[in-house]
Amino acid sequence: MKRIIKSGLILFASVIGLSSCLEDKGYTDIVNGVGSQNSYVSFFGNESSLRPVILEATDKPKYDTLVVSFASSTPQTQDVTVTVDFDAAAIAAYNNSNKASFSTIPTSAFNIINKSVVIKAGKREAKIAYSLVGKTLAKCESFLLPIAIKTTSVGVVAGNYSTAYISAIVPENPFAGSYQATGIFTHPVNGPRDINEAKTLSTVDCSTVETNFADLGGSGWKMWLKINADKTVTLIPKGNANTATVQSGVNIYDPAKKQYILNYSYPAATGDRIITEKITIK
């Protein structure tokens, strides 16, 4: 199944002939199904990627939706009924595959509002609604809510895009907040330039924050700063940031000054880009 749906998705963008309204939504049709079962139901786009949610320790629900998608070689002429449900077994599988350590979310912390949804004839998508509450969650523990497509009345469930993963945490993070970054970005050809910008450090988990990578946030470059027990800082490139980024000196958090002292670099064709940066609480 996985091989089939992946090969189908390769052709997803190359087929012509959908109505203009579907083209506007970015849909094309899969054409190389097996036999007559050339229709697939899945979570649309990156819906099956991990979706982190930060919760408050209250009983106020936080609502969101997931998009269920129908793809076929011809427009669908009948309604498609799709069912979903919580899949506890997927948590261990996700942890094993991603070297993660998510806990099973308690049933008191979530509600799948509509476990059955109908994709109307001629349409390509419908929405599953769910809610999360943080009141019963242990603080600083990361929980995982997998929602899996269980059945479809037409076609087959796509094996590799059939589960959506929502992570939930109620943080107590003393490292997040509004900061001022200063430093130097040294380019091997253009020379050094100053870094001087306000940065927001947002919570990832209870010891990790996310912010702009050097002065490249406008280009989608992000970094996670994980504060270790000894107050050293592990920098993890995120977003569009160069995945070959390495520590090139001391990376440490000073709790007295509430300041990050960072030294890091990344390679490029013309030479390494070297960054020294201090990020200080305002």
The Cα radius of gyration reads 23 Å
Uncertain regions: pLDDT < 50 for 5+ in a row? 1-36
- Apparent shape: globular
Mean pLDDT: 86
Largest sheet: 9 strands, antiparallel
Strand content: over 45%
Tally the structural domains: 2
Helical content stands at under 10%
Distance between the termini: 53 Å
CATH-level-2 architecture of the largest domain: Sandwich
CATH topology of the largest domain: Immunoglobulin-like
Description:
- The chain is mainly β.
- The protein has two domains: 2-169, Immunoglobulin-like; 177-281, Beta Barrel (Lipocalin).
- The chain contains three helices and 20 strands.
- The protein has helices at 2-10, 20-24, 89-98; strands spanning 40-43, 50-54, 62-71, 80-86, 103-104, 110-112, 116-119, 125-132, 143-152, 156-157, 163-169, 177-187, 191-205, 208-212, 221-227, 233-239, 246-247, 252-254, 259-266, 273-281.
- Mean pLDDT is 86; it is low at 1-36.
Give the topology.
Layout: H1 2-10, H2 20-24, E1 40-43, E2 50-54, E3 62-71, E4 80-86, H3 89-98, E5 103-104, E6 110-112, E7 116-119, E8 125-132, E9 143-152, E10 156-157, E11 163-169, E12 177-187, E13 191-205, E14 208-212, E15 221-227, E16 233-239, E17 246-247, E18 252-254, E19 259-266, E20 273-281
Parallel strand pairs: 1-10, 2-11, 5-9
Antiparallel strand pairs: 1-3, 3-8, 4-7, 4-9, 6-8, 9-11, 12-13, 12-20, 13-14, 14-15, 15-16, 17-19, 18-19, 19-20
